Structure prediction request, 527 residues.
Amino acid sequence: MQDESTNSLSTQRLGQVVSTRTDVLPVEYTDTLKTLQDDVPGFSGVRAKEIVSKELGQECDSVFKNFSPEPLAAASLGQVHTASYKGRKVAIKVQRAGLKELFDVDLKNLKKLAELLDKFDPKTDGADRDWVSIYEESERLLYLEIDYLNEASNCERFAQDFVDIDWVRVPEVYREVSTPRVLTMEFVDSFKLTNVKKIDELGLDRELLAKRTADAFLRQIVETAYFHCDPHPGNLCVDKSGNLVYYDFGMMDELSPNVRSGFRKFCTALFAGGPFVPDDELAVNAKMLVDGVEEAGVLARGADRLAVEKLARYFMRTFKDSQLGKKGRSIKQTVGTDLQTLTENDVFRFPSTFTFIFRSFASVDGIGKGLSDTFDIGKLAQPFIEKFTEVQKNETVAEKNLNILGKATGLNQADIYKAITSPKKIDYMERTIREMERGDLKIRVRSLENEKQLERLSLTQGKMEKLLFASLLLNLAGAATNRLLRGAGFLGAAAFGLQAFISSSKITKFDKTQEKFVATKFVGDDE
Prediction:
């Protein structure tokens, strides 16, 4: 029989992320949600020892000494007990019984839900979400999460990624006493980053801890491209010396080469030049940013590049202004029509990996803001990205050869690049002109305001026609002497009246949608 905590797995996982949003939710709510992080009811120590004995093929007491009868922490997938192994204190993670069977049932139901979401998600924010792909990625990661040997490999790789960072600690794995359902690791004493009272009592620098939390996250996303998907306060802690301590490596993900390259290009473009970048340089950076978004697979094929670049320039300038503490320009007046075009065409398609990046970002951002009121991951990312970009210069063989050629000829890399790419650009221009001369190239010019005027006019005309028919049928029904004819007239009038009401609702919805993007008065509106 499965325990109650096992059956509420989805709720617990959601609560773990939401509980980090101390900057959004009141303290009484986050305090309650925090209990989902590691205060899940556990199973007995006797049952845990039985599982360990079965997995290791020998009695638990013959391998471990001082096995704690009560769990140190209980989570949705298992619980942790402390013990001694060869004279060293260890943490033993023991998986709950029957998890795979539960996953088989629950994930089958979730797949049906994902298919329904793909059909009915309105996607009014312009993102073409593929819920089935997100489900499939989640399913893959969840099944990997209940394989503790996979978690052991993840832990060792993560530790290697941070081997040169002395303020990040990752527990050592003892593989000889680990199995797919039992994981034995070094015991590292720590406490939650959300325990601000204890942080202050120990005299730790909250600003520094917030910065380290952001730096560790950025290193994973930008440098190593291998990141922790679930860094909630139960998995990302701090020791008495102020070092970050990571736990629970069951959910890790790696950016594919194209996403990694595109994301780096995106970050480089966004932070290039600092907050004082001039408009002409910003326009160049916006092109690079859109190139990165396209390379990462976020931008759909056939998307209006000019509109996307204009949108990128607006958001980049707004971001730069926010770094200076300035208020950005109105989105309606600046890019309203372009934003509406992109939203209606669903040009943004986020790969499933981004779901876990956003989730990880939400956790880290929530923890950082809980530590410091002035926490801004965007500002902290500026020097990090600049330093990373500088290190990456001349990294590839081609870039090194360009640098050598530049020194020999006295030309910089930009000049050499222009010289190399100019023939290709000239050929492209020549082919484009020839297509225009032959009439093969079609240039489409859009006037979104006129299109919307006509669209609203069509809706209004449809409503008026239905009202006219309803009125006509009412008059006929009133004048009819035949009872059957009178009933049919009233019924028809009611049907057209209902359709007119629906049309009126569509017009109201249309106007509200327009209001989000542009401040427009339509023909026929009252002054």
Notes: Residues 1-8, 13-25, 332-336, 519-527 have pLDDT under 50 and may be disordered. DSSP finds 20 helices and ten strands in the chain.
